[in-house]
Each structure stands twice: as C-alpha cells, then as structure tokens.
Amino acid sequence: MSGRNVTDLSIVVLCYRSEENIIPFVSDLKEHLLIITDSWEIVLVGNYIAGANDKTGDIVQSLASSDDRITALVEPKLGMMGWDMRKGLQAANGRFLCVIDGDGQFPIEAISRCYDSIIHSDLDMIKTFRINRPDGVYRFIISTVYNHLFSLLFPGLGSSDINSKPKIITREAYERMDLASDDWFIDAEIMINVRRHKMRFKEVPIQFQGLIERRSFINFRAILEFMRNLIVYRFHEFTKLK
Fold first, then answer.
1. How far apart are CA 46 and CA 102, in angstroms?
2. Where are the alpha helices (DSSP H) in 68-124?
3. Which of 181, 188, 176, 198 is nearest to 234 (CA)?
4. Where are the domains of the chain?
5. If I label 230, which of 36, 64, 66, 110 is the partner at 20 to 30 A Cα–Cα?
6. Mean pLDDT for back-to-back runs of 10 residues, the chain (242 residues)
7. CATH 3.90.550.10, domain 7-241, yes or no
8. Interior CA angle at 214 toward 141 and 98, to 5°?
9. Which residues contact 164 (CB under 8 A, 6 or more apart)?
10. How far apart are CA 13 and CA 170, in angstroms?
C-alpha cells in the first residue's frame, strides 16, 4: 500500500457492456456510500473487447472525470470477468475491498449491510447469498447444480451461493489470495482461497433482481468452463496437500 492514498472502502464495479445503464447505478452508489463512510472510492472497470460496439469505456471515463473519488479502468480485454475483477482489485486502495456487478441485479443496499458487519467483526470476508432467482428456471437450475458440485468437491466451506455479490474482503485477506482466473470462475476461486487459508466469512441474504436491459453473459460454453475449472482446481488442492 506504500505510496497509495488509502481509503476505508473501495467499491470495484464490473461495468462490462453496461453503457448508459451504469450512469444511474453510479449515482445511486455514490448516494449510498455517503451514508456509509466519508472515506470511499469507486473503481469502474469498463474494459472492452476490441472492435466491439460498446460505449461503456467512454461513459465510465466521463463519470471519473467529474469526481476525483472515481477511477475508470478502460483497456482492451485480455480475459473476461476474472480479468476485469483482478484489474479492479489491483487498482483499489481501500482497507476493505468490495466487488459488485454494475447491472443492478445485486442491490446496492447490501453493501452497507456487509460493510457494517465486517468492520464490527474479526471476519476476513462478508458476502451475500440470493434468496430468490427471478432470472429464470434455466439459470436457477444451473446455479443450484453448480453450488452443489462446488460443495461436493470443496467440502466444509459452508457457502450456499458461491457467485453471489457484493463480496467485501479485508485488504489483508485479499493479499493472501493468489487469484489468477481470467474467466467467469473468479468468484469460485475467491471462495477456494477462503477455504484454503481457513478464512472467516459470513453470508447475508439479499433479494436478487432479474435482468431487464440485456441478456445474461452466461452461456453453455461458460458452464463447461465452470465445470472444467472445478475439476482442475480440485486437483490443484490435492497437490497442495502433498
């Protein structure tokens, strides 16, 4: 952290292809943060696929230019969500690091619940779990199978919803993690690190919102990627124990 302007809370917002929808999201987020703490920053990750018709980068740069508490990361993508998240976390200065999607599915209000809980505890991470899935039967089935498979391969963790956000991690816990995923597996990799390092965490319930403005980025290829990574990381866990 040497040379950085340390803040209490950094919010890393994954903005991929959000375009104009990120504007009201950031406005609501700023209002919410003003209630939580005087020491905060927002890192807007607006990385893009080269050649794509995506205005997100320009929009997040405009938002950052109007507020010195906002940083915009806009680079040609060398990966998917995992690459974006790792870039955002690397750029964050906070003692507590929060990651949330910018599509509005995860309620901003959950940030204050998680933050209040972690600053008054000795936990390494606070995350949410979704008590409803209004994004369709298909996504519900995929999520249920995925979480059960994760629990089978990585027993004892006690997480009911691996991919749910927001996640708030202490700086110390984050620096102990060895995150390498460039793809959609990054949330699972975080939880594998929590299990490996015997970190203390808690889950709080949230009401999840369905996508209205766009279709989900999770496709059949991403599902196969999840399954492959679960097996690969399970093998890596075995080798680390030897």
1. 10
2. 81-91, 109-119
3. 188
4. 7-241
5. 110
6. 76 96 97 96 96 94 97 95 97 98 94 96 96 75 86 93 96 96 94 96 91 56 78 76 46
7. yes
8. 75
9. 106, 127, 128, 129, 130, 187, 203, 206, 208
10. 17
